[in-house]
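Encode chain A's predicted structure.
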Amino acid sequence: MSALPPIPTAIATCRAVANAPVDALSVLSIKNVAMPATPEVLWRTIHEAQAKGA
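Encoded structure for chain A:
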């Protein structure tokens, strides 16, 4: 038996992980985060939103 989850579960998990930063930053009116969402990408996204007056 495989140690990997079934394909639909794996895809749903990836989507949830990818959407988590956007959900967390929605209070700053951020609607998109470039992937991979590294700490530097998140930092830049937050500071760009703050500079725009979000």
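The chain has a mean pLDDT of 87.
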